[in-house]
Amino acid sequence: xxxAALSPLIATAFLVLAATAQTVAPAPATPLTAxxxxxxxxxxxxxxxxxxxxxxxxxxxxxxxxxxPDRWSVAEVAEHITVSESVxxxxxxxQLMSSPAAPDKRDQVKGKDELVAERVPDRSHKFQAPExxxxxxxxxxxxxxxxxxxxxxxxTMDYVRTTNDDLRDHFFDHPTLGTLDGxxxxxxxxxxxxxxxxxxEEVKADPNFPKE
Length: 212
Description:
By secondary structure, the chain is mainly alpha-helical. The chain has seven helices and two strands. The protein has a single domain (32-204), classed as dinb family like domain (Four Helix Bundle (Hemerythrin (Met), subunit A), Up-down Bundle), CATH 1.20.120.450.
C-alpha cells in the first residue's frame, strides 16, 4: 500500500522544528550569588589589611633586607603580591571567561572553594613563581608599590561586587590544585596574598632582620 505524502503544512512544521533544535539558545549566564560575593569581598578586605599592616613602618634597611641570597626581601615579596593581583585578575577576565562555558565540569571543582582557602596560604609546601610574577624592582619606592597594590585590589573587588560573568561555568587548570572555576580563581588571588603576607612575617622574624 502506497504511503501518503506529508501535507505541505506538516512538512513545514517538521522543518521549523528541526531548525529550532539546531539553534537552541545557550542557557543564560548565572551570576554569582549575594553570599558568594560577600564571602569573597570579606576575604579580600582581610588579606588587603593584613598585607598593608605587614609592610607599614619599615625602614629602607628592613624593606630591602634578604635573609639569604636565595630568599626574597620584604620588598620583593610585596612586589610579587602586587604583580600577581593584576595578572591573576586578567587571567580570569580575559583568558578564563573567553573559554567556552563547560557546566559539565562543575563536579570536578566541588569543595575547592574551601581547598583554595586552606591549601594556598599553607607555606609548608614551597613553589617557584613563574617568570612573569617574579620581582624585578618594578617600583622605586614602597609608597609607589602600595599605591599600585591598592588600585589593583580596588579593581579586583569592584569586579567581584559588580560582575555578571558566569564564573561558575568557566574553568582553567591550576598547576597544583587542578581544575578551578572562575570564582575559585578569584578566591585564589586573595589566598595568594595571604600566603605571601605570611612570607613577609617570616622575613621580619629572621634573627638578622634589622632593628630599625
